[in-house]
Amino acid sequence: KRVWNLFKSYWLVMTIFILIATLLQPERYPGNIMEIALNITALDITYNDTLWFLFPYALLTLFAQPIIKLSTVLRGTWLCIFIASAFIAKAIAYNTEIPFDNLGGIVMRNLFCATELFFMFFVGALFARNSLMERCVTNVKERFSHSRITRRLHIGTSTACTVILLLLFTGRIFMGASTLIDPLFIIPMIIMFLCIERPKWLNSSLGYIGCHSTNIWFTHRYLLVLSGAAIAFFHYPIVIFAALIIICLTISHIINVIKKAKDLIHSFNEQMLTEGKNPVGAINTLINTSEFWVSDQKNIRVEPVMPDNGAKSADEISAFLDDRALPEFDGKI
Length: 333
What we know:
Blueprint: H1 2-24, H2 33-41, H3 54-62, H4 64-74, H5 77-95, H6 103-116, H7 118-129, H8 132-145, H9 148-153, H10 157-175, H11 182-195, H12 200-211, H13 213-231, H14 237-274, H15 279-289, E1 290-294, E2 300-304, H16 314-323
Helix pairs in contact: 1-13, 3-6, 5-6, 8-11, 10-11, 13-14
């Protein structure tokens, strides 16, 4: 369900922006049939290259439960398996001449990416499954509150965690990106951040952005591709970043309105079908089964048009209307 909802959002955003891109850059978009199919399935996303790991993430999510169950059986062995599989996948991907320009190569590339992301994905999954993050935050706060070092330096838990967070962030920058090393930096960074006392406005702001984070991820690259020159007009990186966030949030609100409208229509249709009141079918059934007219604004008569089968009793009329699935009539048009 999570993967399906993610892909529905991906398809909605892609459809909106590709329609716009087709008008602005018809020589580039939407491309040939193969390119369209690869983008729809997320096997090879050329429209928005920042979504390259969407398909590997979907694979990992779909197979998460059985692998996590296997990891609980293997216990410590699963760590070695994931690390070894990540190294092997990376070695094969970078040291073999696999053609990634055909369908078979594209599928292999996604499998290698999924294997390489195994360790990082399942470390996070196990932390979430066993509530390890909450335990770590509680333990860190208790340790720092009774630490001799913090007492001698006259600093509180928030200050100490802030310093450690900055050191981890700096170390992460110098170490570079790696699916094996990232969890060793990112998980402690998250723990330190959660231990810091934050003002309410900061939590509210981060929560607000967090609700739109998926849409921001989906849309920001499209904006840079389609209107990079206009965004570069702001010149200064921090101003460009702020402008991009504001534009993405605005677009995210529009996307959410479209999603809610679509969900409301879908749920309304399902409810009508469940109750035998299809909004289109109900009107057609009423017109085909009855002759109705308005004598005045308050009184509405409905007279059934009976088939030529001799049925004239009230019970037979009622049975006939039930067979035709006549919707309930509330006296209003």
